[in-house]
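Q: I'm writing a short explainer about dolichyl-phosphate beta-glucosyltransferase for a general audience and would like to include a description of its predicted shape. Could you first generate the structure from this sequence?
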Amino acid sequence: MNHDSFIFKNQLITAFFCSLLAITTAIISAPASDTPPVFEVPTFVPLDKSYKVVIVIPAYNEEERIESTLHAYFDYFSKQKNLTTTFLVVCNNCSDNTAAVCKKIKKRHRQLDYIDLQPGGKGFAVKQGFLKALDYDADFIGFVDADMATTPPYFYELITKMKNHDGAIASRYKKDARIWPNRPFIREIGGKFYNWVLRHNFHLDIRDTQCGAKLFTYQTVKDIAPHMQEKGWAFDLELLYLCQIFDKNIIEIPTTWTDMPGSHLTISGCYKEFISAPLRIKKQQKKLVEKVALEKSEQRRQARIQQKAERKGRKKMPKMFA
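A: Of course. Here's the predicted structure. Afterward I'll give you a sentence or two in plain language.
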């Protein structure tokens, strides 16, 4: 084992134990109040032109709350000017009636579509949702978790902040982000440390890779979705790494986020996946990195040839004036 690999392994091990301790603390620590605070919703600058958006909602056994989530999003987005929104629920290997609930709602709401997948995994669901969304006439394609941890105004905020960026993602760790309940100190430090390890090894200038609200341009999704391979919880990291490979300009927006009960994320499953994710993702995308690097090299070579030809052409131009 070389020195760099040794350091990297130790960083991951340290992140593992810090984050494990953090979550353990969070589990045994009860929030001060069961009632979330009412945050004042900011007024957003109106959209300067009309946009079409597809919002993918991965849903695993969400029959109890998918209807309330959809109606909250329907109500808010129907009031926004210059915006046409399609909601695409991806039922992710559900063993309950999530798909049946979506089928019932779809009869009354034309802006809703859904697909029912047998293979499991949130990453697989988001990828299939992205690929399906490419069939729509859309300017932006994104995804949001079904648990309403991100409420409609704060997903809409991503749309207002896109401007000339290739993507806008919600962040719980940027300055001015608001989270309820306040996370125990150890949990917050553990989460931030793990994100630091990821940023360090992928050279990502992103503080929060895992927040479940992200939005991209149609072209960005078209470029990256076919290359997504992570089927589980680590797909966010791969997705952002793919954006880096393709030189996408991603902006991180401080969000308002509520930690909702009923998470399907288990400690034993997610940490084994997350700790192995960085090396696995780099290995999976190695050929793509090499391919894109060759394409960029060829583009630079062709640009130099073009510049050289233009310089020669200018030298051969006859002098029209003394």
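A: For your explainer, you could say: The beta strands are 51-59, 83-92, 112-117, 140-144, 167-171, 178-180, 213-217, 250-254, 256-258.
Q: Perfect, that's easy to follow.
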